[in-house]
## 1
Amino acid sequence: MPKVSLHSGFLSTFLPDKPVESGCVALKEGFGEHAAPFSLEALSGEDGLLGPDLPLVDESAAFFSTPAPTYLCDEVTSTFAVAHALAQKKTLPAWGAVLAACQTEGRGQFRRRWQSPRGNLYVTFRLPDVPLFRTSAGALVTGVLLAMAFSRLGYPLRLKWPNDLLNRDHAKAAGILLEDRGGVLLAGVGVNLHRLPDAQQLRSDRAAPAGLLLDADGNPSSLAPFALWQTLVGEMIAAYNQTFAVTTAEALPSLADPFLAWRGETITVSDADGTMLSGRLGGIGPTGGLLLTSNGRSHELFRGSLARA
């Protein structure tokens, strides 16, 4: 078996006390009730964060390279909880991320439970502290950035407004959730990379079936969770710098509409209180709302869950 490099820049015992500019840190302790003790089994193996093929000593620097600090965890209550702890210690800069092997209290839209079997990507990262992400369009912009990044990597996904990503088979491959904690805006993302959630535990009224991340030919990804995040975050940063960082809100529809699922189709939007509205999906408005035409009237919606009518 080749010798694996687990150098001091990679393994840490407690939460760091000073900012980490880039690279990878595996956190073993320091989360109280929010995380189980770290095990090396969470790193390697078929369902490990790093996959079965760990680097040789002279390959470790490139293997663990990330544009912003990435913290690896074993089982956590949620990656949000750990990311918040890091942000409070000022050790989670923009695009800094927390990856976990699994979650016990992951959640999605309307605080619904998000199943988190090992082998998938569960990540929470800090968004740049710019006004765009704090507007009503923040979740949409994050979803479009992810769709852009996945597309650049060969995974054509479409955004089911406001926070789901569908694969080429119109199945839900990823979910997104934004949360402001103490003035720090965090984005949580779950991607069905290698494992699907238990169908018996999913809602019977779900708008789309669960599906895996698929490439343009319909093949599942072979990447380990960390390798996927390593490339995904780089593409997200590049897409952000080339689009939203240098544009105005008026350009949002032209950036978002190409990635919008079910555009031009008849859909139903349901709110948490049971309110429903059906109509033709026209696209995205400049403030991030969903444009819907129903009975000859135009509506711009800012919350709700979509389903094909």
## 2
Amino acid sequence: MIDNRGYLYPERKENGYENLKTPITVNCCGSKCRFSRDYLRRRPEGRADYQLLYVYNGTGHYLFSDGWRAMNAGSLILYKPGEIQGYCYYAEESPEIYWIHFTGSQIPSLLKHFHICTGMIGRSSTLKNLFDEIISELQLKNLYFSELVNSDFLRLLVLIERTRDHYLHPAHTNLSINRLILHLNQTYMEPWTVASMAVFCGISSDHLAHLFKSATTTSPMRYLNHLRIEKAQELLTVTDLQIQEIAALVGYSDGLYFSRIFKKTTGMAPLIYRKQSGQTICTGC
């Protein structure tokens, strides 16, 4: 078995550490894989800290108050302080497990905010890599490692919730839509149409419209227009460019059409917006 782990404290306590004087403290983090024999561990009294376990590959078996439960790849297990704990891993099931122990005064509210609980969240290589990063920081203990580990723990909670959302609502998080959104933010000035966006994503225009609305609650062209108007607002504030010039820079060949879209979006004409925003010419930005 490969057992890779890192600790905050040099002295290791079987019961773990509770520290409510700090908002967040990660006590230790590790992984187990390539089991050559079966593995069983019980903690009838639990621990003083919290524990999250993530089954990345294979199957793990976990003890809860109502008995043992098999948890497949993509499962998350949460043990709270004082809860009975038990893990059993069979070599033939090829489990790969990540775990982290943590404590702090903000932990209950954070777990509630990010809906962290036992259940299926789906497999994520991003989550796996973040666990590995935390383990490395705890092993190397470079400058300000504990601050970095605690910030990584917050990222971990966010990624767990995102992973669960992707698993439960795959249509809402289509990767081609994410790729399109990032690309639009860089190329908003180009002559985009719904058809050209669909070609970029490799799907039909109708399918694009459905996926985009599910992911953003708005249509593709409305999103693009809003993005262009945001850029135009900035140019109106920090430059003395003419309206037609700004329109062309953000993707509108027709200055009058740009002005209509701008007023519809912001509630005022471009020149009025420039006056009310207090134009500040920026020559060296």
## 3
Amino acid sequence: MPEIRSMRVEDLDQVAEVSDQAFIAVIGKLYGQRLERPFFPLAGLALRLWTDPEGCLVSSDHGEIGGALFSVARGSLGWFGPLAVATTVQGQGAGQALVAECLHRWRRRRVRMLGLETFPSSGFHAHLYAKFGFRPGWTGVQLRKRFDVEGVEEEVEPARPLQHANLPLPDLGFLYRGLDPAAEVRATLLRHAGRVFASDRGLAILHLQDAFHVTPEEAFLPFLAARDRDSFLSLLAAAEEASRAAGRKSLALRLPGTAWTAFRALVERGYQAGPAMLRMKAGDHLDYDRDAWYVDDWL
């Protein structure tokens, strides 16, 4: 019987292989794309484990990793992904066991809003997560801005960088009560994965290297929460400025499809919409992000 346990650093090579193979297989089945490893950068998996070791799990059978789940709890708000099960043991309950243990740990940690992203064209995945009470009623939309495309931008004063990982962070309870991304802030700064920008009205995390979605040419903004339009644009401008200074040619991000005011502001600033994923939620106050000045990545 496989054991569900906390992930260890020494598991990461096996976890990367299992995760890559599972995602490459499902993307090939759903969309006909023929991808190759690596799909998930090992450094990105390591950053996710470093961020929230209690939320990262494996299914292990006599030392062989058959499945893995990564998650991050931002205080009262948690999301998991990627979740992967080895193609050789799919259909035997490993995925459900990993999700069940993740939710058990979240309850113990008082996570009240639970989320995930999955493939919009996969009924199998929607059915799996619906068993745990997740509702398929939202989207996560990718946007990208290329810095070599000229356009008229509203001039704003960029927010200042956070200089130390242990400095107090702004209260983000205006978005969701108990929301706290401190673990991601510490991981980003202490592992030198990027920059963090803060003001008394919001916070942004920028990844430049050794993280998911980043390349030598593109930076990624996994989190931004602001009270209003001015503070949103100030934090965004700081991330764009730092990306350019690091030699990146573009900046990508994801945001909830319900964050319509932020979406329009991004398009006005030159961002182009890309692929969308299905977001599923469970818990309390599921529409907390409606018309919020908010960017977040759930993968």
